Amino acid sequence: MINDMMNMDFDFEEVGFTSDVTYDLDTEKRIRCDEVENVMQSKIGSGIEVGGDEFKTDERSLTSISRAYSHAINSKMNNATYETEWSKKDGTPVILDADGMIELGEKAFQKVDVMYRKARVVKSLVRELETIEEVKTFNIFSSELWLD
Fold it and tell me: pTM for the whole thing?
């Protein structure tokens, strides 16, 4: 049940995270940057679409994708047949050949890379802010900052 709750889509914009506690400017920036990390992880874990099918991209799934991707690459390099049964986001099984697994892996890795780069940009925007009020009101959840 906990895993189901962690894999649910979460709209951070609907949640108004506020705090009555105020710290110095550098501490507020560090707190905000930590929140950016949380948003990034949520975005990474929200899943990907490959060939019209949705797949999980939580941490456990990414580890499994990485292993299967390596096997698929090795199979292609050795001209060996590769086929694996994979679960879509809804749990429905699908058979992937080497090309399908490679595509899934590349899209998953691309999403991780893009989200890390976007998080670096958002963090740099936070670090450039000059007042505690600006830091506290800067909308790190803005969808414009995280578009794929």
Answer: 0.79
